[in-house]
Here is the input.
Amino acid sequence: MKSRATKLGFTLIELLITISLIVVLVSILTVALGAARTAAQVAETQSRMSALKQATVRFKEDVGYYPAVLDTNRNLATLPAFPSPTSGTPQQMYRYQAQDWYSITSPAEYLIGYGNQAQDGYGRLPGSQQNDPDYIEMPRFGFRHPGMDGVWRATDVFAGAGAGSVIDRSPSTRGMLFGPYLEVENEQMFGRIMHDSNGEPLRDPVTRNIKVFYPGDPELAALTIAEQQALPMVIVDTWGNPIRYYRAMYPNPADPTLPLSGIARTFPQSNSYDRPTLSDYFVLRPSEFESNKALDGTLPDFREGLGQTNGDRSTTFELQAGQFAFFSAGPDQQMNAFIRSDAFGLPDNDDEYATDESNKDNLVEVGP
Here is the structure.
């Protein structure tokens, strides 16, 4: 009697089961690797923001104040006037407009000091030749004292300026050299931004975040070296988005006839309103609070709508007392500037129908 031949190979069902198991394992591994990569990116960004905080403290120790808030063209940013009892300006409109008073250009401007001699007092001028006095000022990182207005006399009417723009700067080319306060880790730590014909920064068409350009990008390669160096520099997080710099508001000079300075073009002489703090930048407020760590801030957010005077005031002691802050939108690269949490307006947003919250993964470093 013949014995049956031993059966070799897999049946179709066994093969499908094996493939399914491999797919599941690969999926689990992919998720784990993605989570590890995200955690590493978060840690690197937090480390970079911590370095920015330490650099800002050192800047203040040397100069006497925290860096001015500049717009995307490196000019002094203007905060909307806080409403007085007779101005007729709705307070809710002020708190709406004030959310945009931050800078992405100040960190590189003051903590690295990449401007040329005409912009910050140190560095080669465009077209400098080997026999010119400024030719040896390379690398040009570092700057001379920004002056009483924080923008190298760009607001000084006695210097013939007053607008706070780059072209109005009149820095001293002598004296102590300050900075750089921040160690440049690699070429991907900072980049340049470009503007459209309306003077607005170019944005990514998908994320709508401000687009950052790096050496080797074709957009930069099409420009001359001088044109590239004239573009505003920004320090980025590990997702390539500019890190934001927020600062508590300084009061105006006691004499209202004096020009508003770079360190004080912010808040009028009035006791009718509480002076805004870092708490009033809603994007800095945490999505969740530790026990006994929450308190009410000055301005309510817009959870009830842009036209409403009520909203969520929840904030922290750290933001109430903080003098400056650095901000990254985190791994999702998204944020909502007008409410603290629950970007989709659903209260108790924690059940099976919960929606994503764009501010939940925000990264904030408060100083000092």
